[in-house]
Design a protein that fits this description.
Blueprint lengths: L11 H8 L15 H21 L4 H13 L3 H14 L8 H9 L3 H15 L4 H15 L1 H6 L12 H8 L5 H10 L8 H15 L3 H12 L8 H21 L1
Helix pairs in contact: 2-3, 3-4, 4-5, 5-6, 6-7, 7-11, 9-11, 10-11, 11-12, 12-13
Length: 253
């Protein structure tokens, strides 16, 4: 999935993380030191996004930018409202809106999420490998693991590592540990795309299998890989999923 990043995010997330890598520890012990400045940055940009929507209330781009920021801040219902407003203003925005599918997933609207990814698959011409993974993840919650595996979307162009191995993992032909071992053996453990996507989706797989402690470990490995402009949106998705599981774990104890 390759979103058009909104102004202020392309490249600046990486710069912010690098700039705060030596900052003093955050007051909240659950989170690394870079999290507070990152959230502050998104909150600051949200003020500009609010002004943009107020100035151009019929601009899908303004709702898109604000929806992204709301999502990154964990304000999922508000992000969904902005994404749905885009579609209300321009129905052509519906089918390509995979970000709305992910937002539905985060609020537990799994049937809506699965349908959104199906629409995107038809729009995209069956090319986006990540979209099939998200439809699988959503369908596990609605129809169970076996049916989701049996009905996983089929893609014929597997030219991006680690996606061929990821699909083998999701359909049950290999385990998350098998995938991680392959990534490490090939020297991709810190790679901004292969390592990141491998650990991220291995973590998502472990979570739907009910192995939450292992999911947290793998998601943290993904989050620890600094994002580049091509992965920054999904890096934030991984961050939010990791934060959710860490919070749930802390509350359980």
């Amino acid at each position: 999935m390759r979103p058009k990043l909104f102004p202020g995010v392309r490249g600046t997330v990486l710069a912010l993380l690098l700039a705060t890598a030596l900052a003093s520890p955050a007051a909240e012990p659950l989170w690394p030191e870079w999290r507070a400045p990152l959230i502050f940055k998104f909150a600051h940009e949200l003020k500009d996004a609010d002004a943009g929507v107020a100035k151009s209330p019929r601009s899908t781009q303004e709702y898109s930018q604000r929806g992204n920021l709301l999502f990154f801040l964990g304000r999922y219902p508000e992000a969904i409202a902005d994404f749905e407003k885009m579609i209300a203003l321009d129905p052509d925005e519906d089918a390509p809106h995979w970000r709305l599918g992910i937002a539905y997933y985060f609020v537990g609207e799994y049937a809506k999420a699965a349908r959104q990814f199906e629409k995107y698959d038809e729009f995209d011409g069956h090319h986006d490998r990540e979209n099939g993974i998200w439809r699988f993840l959503a369908q596990v919650h609605t129809d169970g693991l076996e049916k989701a595996r049996a009905e996983m979307l089929v893609y014929t162009e597997f030219d991006r590592e680690p996606f061929p191995a990821l699909y083998d993992m999701f359909v049950g032909r290999r385990t998350s540990d098998d995938l991680v071992a392959e990534i490490e053996q090939k020297g991709f453990a810190n790679h901004e795309q292969v390592g990141f996507f491998g650990f991220f989706y291995a973590g998502m797989n472990e979570e739907v299998l009910g192995h939450k402690a292992h999911a947290i470990e793998l998601l943290k490995r993904a989050v620890d890989i600094m994002p580049n402009p091509n992965t920054v949106y999904m890096w934030n998705v991984a961050r939010l999923q990791w934060e959710r599981l860490v919070t749930e774990q802390a509350q359980a104890h």
